[in-house]
Design goal:
The chain has 333 residues and is of the alpha/beta class. It is 36% helix and 25% strand. It is built from ten helices and 15 strands. The strands form two sheets. The chain has a nine-stranded mixed sheet with strand order 14-13-12-11-7-10-9-8-15. The chain has a six-stranded parallel sheet with strand order 3-2-1-4-5-6, sandwiched between helices. Helix 2 links the parallel strand 2 and strand 3. Helix 1 packs across helix 9, helix 6 crosses helix 8 and helix 8 crosses helix 10. The longest helix has 20 residues. Bound molecules: NADPH dihydro-nicotinamide-adenine-dinucleotide phosphate (NDP). The site of NADPH dihydro-nicotinamide-adenine-dinucleotide phosphate has 21 residues, from helix 1. NADPH dihydro-nicotinamide-adenine-dinucleotide phosphate binds next to helix 1.
C-alpha cells in the first residue's frame, strides 16, 4: 500500500488527484497539508482524508507517508519537493515543475541522489487518445511526421481566475500553465525533442500584471517536424485538438486537450477517413497507477522529472521568444 500525503489543498487535488489516488487498490491519501489550518481541515473532511497538517514540514515529518503529491502554486513546488525528497518521500509534482530551469534540474538531481521516484503530472500523455496517436505514428502508418497543430485555447473558469492571471511571482500566465502541456504531449506523441521556438503573446482582457492570456507559436523538432500551437485562457467557444500530418497520412485528434477521458482520433489518407478505436481511461488515475508501479518496480513514472524539465525549457523559450521577438534555442534537460 502506498500512503500519500497531499501538499496543497488545491482544486486539482479536489477534482481529480485525491479521487485518482483513492481509486487505486494499492494506494490511499493519508494526509493533506494546507497553509490555512481551517481550510485544510474542511478539505480533509470533504475528501475523507484522515489527517490535516497546517504546515508542509509537519506532513513531511509523518513517517507513515511514502509519497507526496505537490499541487501548491508554482513558485512553491521546488521548496516543497526538496523538503519531501530530503525526508525520503517519492514525489509526484504538478507542472510547471518550477519557475526556472535551475530549480527544476535541482529537484530532479535531488530525487536521483536520494533514490526516490520523481514524476511530473503531465496528464495528457496518459490520455488514451494521445497514446493511440503515438502508437499509430510509431507504426509508420502516417509516414514521416512533417507538421503538427495543437489547439489548446480554452476558457479559464471564474473559480480559477486567481493567481494564474495576476501573479507573475506564482508562475501565472498561459505559457507556464498550458504551453508546458503542449510541449510534453508533442514530445510524447512524436518521440522527438523541441530544438527551437518562436512565439507571440497577447493579453486580451484576463491577464493582469503583464501576464499573457494567449499565445501562438511554432516549435521545431530535432527530426525536422514543425508544430504550431495556440493556447489561451480567453476562448469560451473553441474546440481543442491535436493534429499530426505525415507523408502518408494525417491524424486528427478532436476534443483531446482536456482533463476528461474523451475525444476522437481520425486517420485520413487520401479520401479515406477512419475513426481509430479508443478505450478511454481516466487520465489522472493512469498517472497515479503508473507512479505507484514506478515505486514498486523502481521504474520511471508516466512522465518523469526530466520530462518536467524539458517541458519547462520549452515554455521558458516560448516566453523569451515572445519577449524578444526572436527565435530561441531550447535548453537541454
Ligand atoms: P488552486 O488555486 O486551486 O490551489 C493552489 C493553492 O492555492 C493551494 O495549494 C492552496 O494553498 C491555495 N488555495 C486553494 N484554494 C484557496 C482559497 N479558496 N483561498 C486561498 N487559497 C487557496 O490551484 P490549482 O489546483 O488550479 O493548481 C495547483 C497546481 O496544479 C498548479 O501548479 C497548476 O499548474 C497545477 N495544475 C495541473 C493540472 C494538470 O492537469 N496537470 C490541472 C490544474 C492545475 P494551501 O495548500 O496552502 O491551502
Amino acid at each position: 500500500m502506498v500512503l500519500w500525503g497531499v501538499i496543497g489543498a488545491s482544486t486539482i487535488g479536489r477534482d481529480w488527484m485525491v479521487p485518482a489516488i483513492s481509486a487505486q487498490p494499492d494506494s490511499r491519501v493519508a494526509a493533506v497539508a494546507s497553509s490555512d489550518p481551517e481550510r485544510g481541515r474542511r478539505y480533509a473532511e470533504e475528501l475523507n482524508i484522515p489527517k490535516a497538517y497546517s504546515s508542509v514540514g509537519d506532513l513531511i515529518a509523518d513517517a507513515t507517508l511514502d509519497a507526496v503529491y505537490i499541487s501548491t502554486t508554482n513558485e512553491s513546488h521546488e521548496q516543497h519537493a526538496l523538503t519531501a525528497i530530503s525526508a525520503g518521500k517519492h514525489v509526484l509534482c504538478e507542472k510547471p515543475l518550477a519557475l526556472s530551469l535551475d530549480s527544476a534540474r535541482a529537484m530532479v538531481a535531488a530525487a536521483a541522489a536520494a533514490g526516490v521516484v520523481m514524476g511530473t503530472n503531465h496528464h495528457l500523455r496518459n490520455a488514451a487518445t494521445h497514446r493511440r496517436m503515438r502508437d499509430v505514428i510509431q507504426s509508420g502508418t502516417i509516414g514521416r511526421p512533417l507538421a503538427a497543430r495543437v489547439f489548446h485555447a480554452v476558457y479559464l473558469p471564474p473559480h480559477l481566475q486567481s493567481w494564474r492571471i495576476d501573479r507573475p511571482d506564482a508562475g501565472g500566465g498561459v505559457i507556464l500553465d498550458i504551453t508546458v502541456h503542449d510541449a510534453d504531449t508533442l514530445r510524447f506523441a512524436l518521440s522527438d525533442e523541441v530544438v527551437e521556438v518562436t512565439a507571440m503573446t497577447a493579453s486580451q482582457g484576463m491577464g493582469r500584471a503583464g501576464l499573457e492570456d494567449g499565445v501562438m507559436g511554432v516549435m521545431r523538432f530535432e527530426k525536422g517536424t514543425i508544430a504550431q500551437f495556440h493556447d489561451a485562457f480567453t476562448a469560451p467557444h473553441a474546440y481543442t485538438g491535436f493534429e499530426v500530418h505525415g507523408t502518408e497520412g494525417s491524424l486528427y485528434g478532436r476534443d483531446v486537450m482536456t482533463q476528461r477521458p474523451t475525444g476522437t482520433v481520425t486517420l485520413r489518407r487520401g479520401d479515406s477517413e477512419e475513426e481509430i478505436a479508443i478505450e478511454h481511461e481516466n487520465l489522472y488515475e493512469r498517472s497515479v497507477r503508473c507512479f505507484n508501479e514506478a515505486i514498486r518496480d523502481k521504474a520511471e513514472p508516466a512522465a518523469s522529472g526530466v520530462d518536467g524539465v524539458r517541458s519547462l525549457a520549452v515554455a521558458l523559450a516560448v516566453r523569451e521568444s515572445a519577449g524578444t521577438g526572436r527565435t530561441v534555442r531550447v535548453a537541454g534537460a
